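2 proteins. here.
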Amino acid sequence: AADNPTEPKFALHDAVPNPFNPSTLIAFNVPQTGHVRLLVYNAAGRLVATLVNGEKTAGRHEITWNGRTDSGAQVSSGVYIARLEAGETTTSRRMTLIK
């Protein structure tokens, strides 16, 4: 039920720490089990890392991003966008890598 306060809401939490070096923890909630994608884009809008791409159960999940691309290269200092997609719902948060 939508009015059940114990039901997890769709949410992407601020990365901790932020700014970060060398890694940051990204936590998110999904209200129901289903396919979830957590993507990291650079400030120019290019996809640099896919952190989650698969089924997740309802509730809270945490993933650490080590500041690396999918191919393993270290990204440069700057602003990155974490984008959470679950079903038709998306949200994003900014995070900054400092060196």
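next one coming up
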Amino acid sequence: LMLLLASATEHGWAAAVGMPDIGALAASEIGVTADRLALVPDPGPDWPQVVAALIDGVDLVAVRTPGPVADATVRSLQARARERGCVLVPTGRWPSAHVTLEVTGRHWEGLGYGCGRLRRQHLEVTTTGRGAAARPRTATVTVGGPAWPFPPSYRNAHEREAALQRALEPHSHAQSADIPDDQIPPENVWAALARRPRPKIERRPPPWH
């Protein structure tokens, strides 16, 4: 959902209704343009009217319904979204949805054998729907920062992990030839500091007074 909001706010406007767990700061860290995102955490029992009003003014409206939705409400909101050219994205069960997105698998990248940090998550997303979308399709979506640009000689995960360990060793003399400074991940502050000479500290005797 956050990736959809990030794509929508890149060149347009979006809104999230009935999602108090979404904050502007956390959304901006994922890539959402906070200035283009309207948040309505608690729309109350009149949430269909709130969604209908937002459909008139933004490009994408994500809504978490408080429970089952009546067929008349579904038809009314879908017709309004179609008329206004807005994308309506309910996060729960929604009768007569044109396309349904479901995460069917995931795995993380970044952790080694007892070391490292989570860097990326690979999601397996399956789409089903009606009409042209009736045939299920599956795609892999990567969530997280860009891949660390290792030299082409490191072909597999074991070689990359060994290069990372050499880069993190404070007194390694081979690390300069393995990985340049501009390819060390920015979060490895200690590794970056260890590669640079220590500054000289001039110690002066204390005054006698």
